[in-house]
């Protein structure tokens, strides 16, 4: 299916790492997918993974009830239909509440209070510090994913820069809900054996090369790909692993409760804890993104998980919906 993509990113001349956030934008088109969700039968699977990242264990047999799930990440086209009907304004399009910073307002740089979002912006030198590649760009939002000066959001690429409330508003409008982590992981694994290596270039959109300074884009994409460019899994679901991270409804704790195995819904809000973001009840996000590379974030796997700040979107996080009935 990659071969069917009418993109130019396979050209050798285009293999250098883009220098700007907007340089990661793709103009590729891929075979269009149905928006019709698929039914996932109730089942039991080995949830979690061990000997990789501590937060993914322990592995335990886990049951999920029947549900339906989108075959692709929610796209800009779908989100635009919601906004057109409701005039909904996302968090990233509104001025920032100074109280969120927890310091006197005069200590907050003025640009941090402008509407905007966090955009991946490649550093010029090797780094292991995420603050070197995340930039708060005023004017960045779902319609302008690379900032005010960048290209418009492409219709069939996943919508990004949404906060939790934005995803919830879309889900309520669309008649769905965010999947639980267990549902998502069961659907992503689709009965396959767990793996640890980076997926092949035709299987998922991840990062080939030494993150964050070298990206050969062997899979055809430096950044986000349109949904449906990569092969589906055995359940017919595209881009579960890679492309953009997908937020689930569960609150985040590092590691799983080994006794919570029957249609688990994660810890309570009060019990939620994210060591990278203490003081905030993070949600679990799954599957890694186009920024996951072997030397950084080996999370291109169904069991991978990280906490997601509910109040802020970024350029590598999206979602898809689950449903309790057809
Ligand atoms: Ca890629
Ligand atoms: Ca994904």
What does this protein look like?
The chain has 326 residues and is mainly beta. The chain has a single domain (34-98, 152-323), classed as paralog of FGE (formylglycine-generating enzyme) (Alpha-Beta Complex). 10% of the residues lie in helices and 14% in strands. The protein has helices at residues 76-86, 164-174, 181-189; strands at 38-40, 43-47, 60-64, 67-69, 116-120, 134-138, 245-251, 283-286, 305-308, 317-318, 322-323. It has a 4-stranded mixed sheet with strand order 9-8-7-10, with helices on one face. A 3-stranded antiparallel sheet has the order 1-4-11, with no helix packed on it. Strands 2-3 form a two-stranded antiparallel sheet. The longest helix has 11 residues, at 76-86. One calcium ion binds next to loops.
In what order do the strands lie side by side in the largest sheet? 9-8-7-10
**Alpha carbon gyration radius:** 19 Å
Structural classification: mainly beta
What sort of overall outline do the alpha carbons produce when their principal axes are compared?
globular
Weakly predicted, low-confidence segments = 1-14
CATH topology (fold) name: paralog of FGE (formylglycine-generating enzyme)
For the biggest sheet, the summary is:
4 strands, mixed
**Ligand names:** calcium ion
Give the end-to-end Cα distance, rounded to a whole number of Å: 28 Å
Order of H and E elements: EEEEHEEHHEEEEE
- CATH top level class name: Alpha Beta
CATH superfamily: paralog of FGE (formylglycine-generating enzyme)
Q: What's the pLDDT, averaged over the residues?
A: 93
Just name the CATH architecture: Alpha-Beta Complex
The figure for the number of domains is 1
Q: How many β-strand runs? A: 11
Instruction: Figure out the total of helices.
Output: 3
What portion of residues is helical?
Answer: under 10%
- Give the DSSP E fraction (strand runs of 2 or more residues): 5-15%
Domain Sulfatase-modifying factor enzyme-like: 36-322
Protein name: Sulfatase-modifying factor enzyme-like domain-containing protein
Pfam families: FGE-sulfatase
Region (Disordered): 253-273
């Amino acid at each position: 299916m990659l071969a069917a993509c009418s993109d130019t990113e396979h050209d050798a001349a285009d293999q250098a790492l883009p220098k700007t956030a907007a340089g990661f934008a793709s103009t590729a088109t891929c075979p269009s997918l149905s928006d019709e969700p698929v039914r996932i039968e109730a089942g039991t699977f080995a949830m979690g993974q061990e000997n990789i990242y501590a937060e993914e264990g322990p592995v335990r047999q886990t049951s999920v009830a029947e549900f339906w799930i989108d075959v692709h990440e929610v796209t800009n086209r779908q989100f635009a239909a919601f906004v057109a009907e409701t005039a909904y304004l996302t968090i990233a399009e509104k001025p920032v509440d100074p109280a969120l910073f927890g310091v006197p307002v005069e200590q907050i740089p003025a640009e941090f209070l402008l509407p905007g979002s966090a955009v991946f912006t490649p550093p010029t030198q090797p780094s292991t510090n995420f603050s070197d590649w995340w930039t708060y760009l005023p004017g960045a939002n779902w319609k302008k994913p690379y900032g005010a000066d960048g290209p418009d959001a492409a219709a069939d690429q996943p919508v990004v820069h949404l906060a939790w409330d934005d995803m919830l508003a879309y889900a309520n409008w669309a008649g769905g809900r965010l999947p639980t982590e267990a549902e998502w992981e069961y659907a992503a694994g689709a009965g396959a054996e767990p793996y640890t290596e980076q997926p092949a270039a035709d299987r998922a959109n991840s990062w080939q090369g030494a993150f964050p300074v070298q990206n050969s884009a062997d899979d055809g994409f430096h950044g986000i790909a349109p949904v449906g460019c990569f092969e589906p899994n055995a359940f017919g679901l595209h881009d579960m692993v890679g492309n953009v991270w997908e937020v689930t409804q569960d609150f985040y704790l590092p590691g799983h409760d080994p006794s919570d195995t029957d249609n688990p819904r994660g810890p309570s809000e009060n019990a939620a804890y994210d060591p990278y973001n203490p003081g905030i009840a993070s949600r679990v996000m799954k599957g890694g993104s186009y920024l996951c590379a072997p030397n950084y974030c080996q999370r291109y796997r169904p069991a991978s998980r990280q906490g997601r700040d509910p109040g802020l979107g970024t350029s590598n996080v999206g979602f898809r919906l689950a449903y309790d009935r057809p």
